[in-house]
Design a protein that fits this description.
alpha/beta; ten-stranded mixed β-sheet
Length: 429
């Protein structure tokens, strides 16, 4: 039998806050993290808005010299992972990684570093480093490319930096399934711990692609919102008739996944159980979901089966809900096909309406939303849902969140390449 896996720690850096408390307050207030782009001059760009991380200072989380060796996505990953580890009681504030070993440690913080892993979903990686180094190459020549170019941009360096920060000597790797990356990382953590290969896995997603190339690249495939440059807080509007594309964002969402008996033995506070996951591919189109939701339906059913649950057991779905013309009605149809009449009784929301689309980080951040929804018995809202589109007729919790009974949540992530990732988180009560 598979070992049970629980969530014992949370950490985030995202457009609504640089820690979990500030982020959750932003969600509960229904606040938008979308604003004019400040990272570069966007005057000539079709899209001039983004969901940027605000007031982030890497030196608040790590040594300044070490931070200079990291691309922004690695800095976000380390910052959020340290918060998650401290929240889990596995690392005291200010304690260096080499001190976090089992021998001589108190029961609350003891862990075996060889059974501690890091699995991060990363859609793109060091985009800013790539851009900066190309400028150096073409303006000053090959000998002037910064020496840290490769160590900063490669996707696996994110979890590598986290491993150094927390002394993780178990499985440490990244995976890339576009917008499903963070969710798939949690699914991998569930399987790794469930099969007995480790005790703790720091898992989730990270991304930092609010760059010139990132924005222009998504613009030319007409994926981003361009109609709300003068009203950025209204740009991300999942399921709304007047949506016109997603809002690119950035950040990290990290969860400490821990084997249940390991967590119980050390007296850890348990948020929820990571109960099931589903992973499929549409095998249909590079950027659009299957028109009938074939792969997404299979992934949701796989996750339910993996968790040993019926569709009627789900109380809340954190939808992929990108605010694109194609995605939202297809995802709504997927929910109806899987859940039948129950689709109209459960609640569905897209928190991307507030924090934007965080690409590889989306699944991690949205899983944190699911965990906190269970903790507080609170259904998060979908803001900007003024006029639901035709066919988008479920309860998307428009404008304001509401209180209610939440036992089990499901989070959808659908990525370019036809990737579909689903995780289920449920109450321990």
């Amino acid at each position: 039998m598979r070992k049970r896996v629980v969530i014992t720690g949370l950490g985030t850096v995202n457009p609504l806050g640089n820690n979990v408390a500030d982020f959750w307050q932003g969600i509960r207030e229904g606040r938008s993290g979308v604003a004019p782009i400040t990272r570069f001059d966007a005057t000539e760009y079709q899209t001039k808005i983004a969901a940027e991380v605000k007031n982030f200072n890497a030196a608040d989380f790590m040594d300044r010299k070490e931070a200079r060796k990291m691309d922004l996505f690695s800095q976000y990953a380390v910052a959020a992972s340290l918060e998650a580890m401290r929240d889990a009681g596995l690392m005291a504030a200010g304690v260096a990684a080499e001190g976090s070993v089992s021998e001589g440690a108190s029961p609350s913080t003891a862990y075996d570093p060889t059974r501690l892993g890091v699995i991060l979903g990363i859609g793109i990686g060091g985009f800013q480093t790539i851009e900066d180094s190309y400028w150096q190459l073409y303006e000053k020549g090959p000998s002037r490319v910064p020496p840290m170019t490769i160590p900063k941009l490669i996707a696996n360096i994110g979890p590598g930096n986290v491993a150094i920060a927390i002394n993780a000597q178990g499985p440490v790797y990244s995976l890339a399934t576009a917008c499903a990356s963070g969710t798939d990382a949690l699914g991998n953590a569930l399987r790794w711990i469930g099969e007995g290969h480790g005790d703790v896995v720091v898992a989730g997603g990270v991304e930092a692609c609010v760059t010139r190339l990132g924005v222009s690249g998504f613009n030319v495939i007409q994926a981003l919102s361009t109609a709300y440059n003068d009203q950025p807080e209204k740009a991300s509007r999942p399921f709304d008739k007047n949506r016109d594309g997603f809002v690119i964002g950035e950040g990290a969402g990290i969860l400490v996944c821990e084997e249940y008996e390991h967590a119980r033995a050390r007296g850890a506070r348990i948020y929820a159980e990571l109960a099931g996951s589903g992973v499929t591919c549409d095998a249909n189109h590079l950027t659009s979901p299957h028109p009938e939701g074939r792969g997404a339906i299979a992934a949701v059913k796989m996750a339910l089966n993996d968790a040993g649950l019926a569709p009627t057991d789900i109380d809340y779905i954190n939808a992929h809900g990108t605010s694109t013309p194609v995605n939202d009605p297809i995802e709504t149809s997927v929910i109806k096909q899987v859940f039948g009449d129950h689709a109209y009784r459960l609640k569905v929301s897209s928190t991307k309406s507030m924090h934007g689309h965080l690409i590889g980080a989306a699944g991690g951040v949205e899983a944190i939303v699911c965990v906190l929804a269970i903790r507080d018995q609170y259904f998060p809202p979908t803001i900007n849902l003024d006029e639901p589109d035709e066919g988008c007729d479920l309860d998307y919790v428009p404008h304001r969140g509401v209180e209610g009974t939440i036992r089990t949540t499901l989070s959808n992530s659908l990525g370019f390449g036809g990737h579909n990732g689903v995780v289920i988180l449920r109450s321990m009560q």
